[in-house]
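Hi team,

Filling in the usual template for the complex we talked about on Friday. All components are listed, including any nucleic acid strands or ligand strings, so the model treats them as one assembly.

SUBMITTER: L.P.
PURPOSE: interface mapping
COMPONENTS: three
RESIDUES: 401
SEQUENCES:
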Amino acid sequence: MSLLAIPFGLIGAFFFLAATIGLLRLPDFYSRAHAAAKCDTVGAGSILLALAFALCPGLASFQLLGLAILILIAGPTASHALARAADRRGVAPWTTDDP
Amino acid sequence: MNPRLAAAFVTGLAVPMLAAMAALPRHGSPDQPIHTHVAREYIESGPETGNLVTAILLDYRGMDTFGEVVVIFVGLVAVLVLARHREPALPAASPSPIVAFIVRLVTPFIALFGFHVILSGLEVPGGGLQGAAILGGLVILNGFVFGPQHARSLLPGRLLPWLQGAGPLAFLAAGIVGGIATGFALGYPTHLPLLHEAMLMGVELGIGIGGALIFSRLYLALEDA
Amino acid sequence: MSELFDVVLLTLLILTALAVARARDLAAAAILFAAYSLMLCLLWLHRGAPDVALTEAAVGAGVTTLLFLVVIARTSR
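RESULT (copied from the run log):
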């Protein structure tokens, strides 16, 4: 069971890395929010799953699973709220016409 | 106030305080009382099970904590008086259906977790103030999403003034019960474990509920101002 | 290894504190202050004070940030 921790940990680390690069490199608010949402949801979710597998027989792994579920619903909701607020305030999305 | 008088007053206060500070053991030095014998004494004669931090806060130095709770609650109530509302709160902009659904979904779980943190403070890290912050944050979250009117409707109406002072009141009640049971104010009856635990839980619940209501009222006062 | 983690956390703590002081936008400063609180929370946890860490997370990063944001929304914008 604890061997499953390795692939999930690697997936989480990859998504954190890619999302951080995206956060720094992407052109506008919406695409950066999209990158940050990946970091929150997939990255942190995978790492929590990896930790749950690593500590498998035990109470801690169930607590970590609960945290992963919470992140799974809270992360996308927060990014949605951010993007919606930006849209309402008239932040224009980046298009290919922009330099 | 006369500025010279004020300066003299502050100096008169500061000199003995600085002198006392200079007489304290150096910060981090190994021969502070806490390092030589106080901490060991606490750990050795503390309870066998349960959260040692809570035991020290509510039991060994219960009087100090009582004073702290009174000071914090009086301070917060003073802030509330200063920030009392002048115009009615604005209704919330229509919330996103997704955010509204998720907040409705997680609200009972967060409330349960808040009470869990308050009550489990006797056994594991946690306690009244931490649970109060979680419950207060929950009310503020609902206020952000559904508007202050909805957040206000989550608070108890007629009991509010009494529950706001629940922290000091619960401490006072525990002090009186302890006084009757042991003969010392805020003494804990260690020969009656059930009553002992009930008193500690009552104090934690009082601090938790009272603190949560004060955090929420602080938020509502800011929204109304 | 354990002490290296402390050093990293302390460095991040100081960096976030400086970032709070340097931030021009008040909302950004409030969010950075929440990050500072979370660093401090991890540090307390790692130094073996879970009670203080829980308080820091709930009060420092949670309620205080929310109240800051309410005040900023009601005053400067």
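MY TAKE: The mean pLDDT of chain C is 88. The longest helix of chain C spans residues 50-75.

Thanks, L.
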